[in-house]
Design brief:
about 150 residues, five-stranded mixed beta sheet, 5 strands
């Protein structure tokens, strides 16, 4: 009878060790699954924000062309900068102009005078920088685009 009790005790010990091993294994699988899931969520968020920044870049360039077209240059000034806040992005637009010799507005600082056809007088070189603001905890995004437009 002693032997029978000994065998039962060793089976209970084996079952306890096997149960602990299975629990540890399942915990490891759960931790791995949560880690992969959080990485996928972060990558999806970063991709969404990068795509949004690219669309804002194009929209800001088009908006700058509209603003240039409506700007009154009769007083000698020209539109040189635009700053747009589209949370969580800051958009900075710098505009340089190319004018035919003698046609430059008197108070316009961002101008180049050169020999160009009169039909291209006032061509704008538009630099757009879209970057994330510093007040959010995401991967920093900074995109730059330069385009030449005739407003």
């Amino acid at each position: 009878m002693c032997r029978k009790g000994y065998i039962l005790k060793s089976k209970k010990a084996f079952v306890l060790v096997a149960t602990l091993f299975i629990i540890a294994l399942l915990s490891g699988v759960a931790i791995l699954t949560l880690n992969l899931q959080s990485n996928m969520v972060k990558k999806s968020t970063d991709l969404f924000l990068y795509t949004q920044a690219k669309l804002l870049l194009k929209s800001a360039a088009d908006f700058a062309v509209l603003q240039i077209g409506g700007f009154d240059r009769s007083d000698g000034y020209c539109l040189e900068n635009l700053n747009i806040n589209a949370n969580p992005f800051d958009i900075n637009v710098t505009i340089n102009y190319i004018f035919a010799a003698g046609n430059k507005p008197s108070k316009c600082n961002n101008c180049i005078e050169t020999d160009i056809p009169q039909s291209q007088n006032g061509t704008a070189i538009i630099d757009v920088i879209v970057q994330t603001t510093n007040n959010i905890n995401i991967e920093p995004i900074r995109i730059h685009n330069r385009s030449v437009r005739l407003p």
